Amino acid sequence: MPIIELDTNLPADRVPAGLEKRLCAATAAILGKPEDRVIVTVRPGLTMVLGGTTEPCVQLVISSIGVVGTAEDNRGHSARYFEFLTKELALDQDRIIIRFYPLEPWQIGKDGTVVTFL
């Protein structure tokens, strides 16, 4: 169950319509998870500084069970997310940061229990 959070200081009118759906589909493909299990939040218009400047930027946080736990995995994921984000948001790679958080099944609540028991 990947949980994707995209924070940006881009104003909402500069975030392409439907980005959340395309990011959901891209995440399913990149992480090899079913699209119906991906959760995406897009938060535009935030006050952000990256590299000492308030120029447009993005922070992408990727939390998931079993697929973001190694440097080798995340190097490949990172390349594919950077390709997606630079194309979708017209940002240079140096204006994007990605954070990966491996999760355990007991850390996700769903259907009145935790994923461990589903």
Automatic annotation (TrEMBL):
GO terms for biological process: melanin biosynthetic process; positive regulation of inflammatory response. SUPFAM superfamilies: Tautomerase/MIF. Coiled coil: none annotated. It catalyses: D-dopachrome + H(+) = 5,6-dihydroxyindole + CO2. Tautomerization of D-dopachrome with decarboxylation to give 5,6-dihydroxyindole (DHI). This is D-dopachrome decarboxylase. It comes from Sciurus vulgaris. Its EC number is 4.1.1.84. The keyword Lyase applies. GO terms for molecular function: D-dopachrome decarboxylase activity; phenylpyruvate tautomerase activity; protease binding. It is found in: Cytoplasm. Belongs to the MIF family. One of its GO terms (cellular component) is cytoplasm. It is an enzyme of class 4 (lyase). Keywords: Acetylation, Cytoplasm, Lyase, Melanin biosynthesis. InterPro entries: Macrophage_inhib_fac, Tautomerase/MIF_sf. Homotrimer. Pfam families: MIF. It comes from the Eukaryota.
